[in-house]
Amino acid sequence: MKRFWLILNIILLVGVAVLCAVRWKAWFSNPPEPQWQGDTISIQFSTFGLDSLPHFGYNGIYWENCDEMDTFQILVLGDVHNSITHEQWNAIAKRHPHIDCFAQIGDFVERGYFYYNQMLYREIKGTPFEQMPLINVPGNHEYLKGIKRTLPDYWLQTFKHPENGPQEFLGTTYYVDFEELRVIAINTNGLQRLKDYTRVNAWLKKTISEAEDRFVVVLMHHPVYSCAAGRQNYRIAATFIRPLKQADLVFAGHDHNYARRMPFVCTNAATKPHHFKPNAKNECSGDGLRAYEILSLYGDTLRMQTRVLETGELFDEVLIVKHDNEREIIEPLK
């Protein structure tokens, strides 16, 4: 019996050694950073952690649109990976001229190098989105790999968000308040220890409960329900599924497909789809769909429209209507 266990331990040790030898480079190394060709670009996006923003003012409680439009609109983008061209940014702005701010849920860039952030800024520069206020979170591609994943300092310098989240996640997990809407951003890729999950979970419950009668929209990179084969993150699901069911909409990316199971929406704007995983519980889905969402808030109604990125064609639509302490969900396309 002792001999059996000795042989088994040797086999396991050899197996682990072979696995590490094969996967070490993929797990813990980064390719050389490309060098930017041309002038260095100084990057600074307009975010709600800054003291002042174009067309917005802060009254000490929430941000308000100084243009006083009847409808407040937010553009939501899933994974981008530097794949939205300058022309496509302009096309989206032309289709939706009344967008007040935009949101992005991680993997904005292909790699967490300054080069790709420069490329992103060049793609957006000269479009209406250059100065438009942005709400975003880092994804796994913003992080540098290693024994411990690290978020480069220039991410926090480029995107200065409110520091109202958990102490370990200041500037990457936070919320932004508007008069009738609270947007909560969760840095799921920064969750690396058990206490990270528990602290962010407790903060999220408190932040949702304190939103009072506002609509609650959550942005996070990793989805609670995966829509790509082999990509389900069970720690994310176990940690967040219950508190997030109290939100009105929860946007995630990472899977490079589209799937909606209210309140959860997995969306994608990148050009490289992952293998789609069908699920009968999904209320709407799109295999490899490149899309964006337009959130429109008017009166007691929050409308989400999912549109095809290349054409602007309407693909999915949901209305969430407040009735006192209840919400009614309407799907006009069904």
How would you characterize this protein structure?
- With 334 residues, the protein is of the alpha/beta class.
- It has two domains: 30 residues; 293 residues, 4-Layer Sandwich (Purple Acid Phosphatase, chain A, domain 2).
- It contains six helices and 16 strands.
- The protein has a seven-stranded mixed sheet, with no helix packed on it.
- α5 packs parallel to α6.
Short summary:
The protein is α/β, with parallel strands linked by helices and 334 residues long. It contains 6 helices and 16 strands. It folds into 2 domains: 1-30; 38-330, Metallo-dependent phosphatases (Purple Acid Phosphatase, chain A, domain 2, 4-Layer Sandwich), CATH 3.60.21.10.
Total domains: 2
CATH-wise, what's the superfamily of the largest domain?
Metallo-dependent phosphatases
Task: Strand order, main sheet: write it out.
Answer: 5-4-3-13-14-15-16
Largest sheet: 7 strands, mixed
Instruction: State the secondary-structure class.
Output: alpha/beta
Calculate Rg over CA atoms. Answer: 21 Å
Mean pLDDT: 90
The sequence of SSEs as H and E is: HEEEHEHEHEEHEHEEEEEEEE
- Number of DSSP-assigned strands: 16
Number of helices: 6
Second-tier CATH architecture of the largest domain = 4-Layer Sandwich
Strand content: 15-25%
Helical coverage, percent range: 10-25%
Low-confidence stretches: none
Query: Whole-Å distance between the termini?
Result: 64 Å
So what's the CATH class of the largest domain?
Answer: Alpha Beta
Shape: globular
User: If you consult CATH, what is the topology of the largest domain?
Assistant: Purple Acid Phosphatase, chain A, domain 2
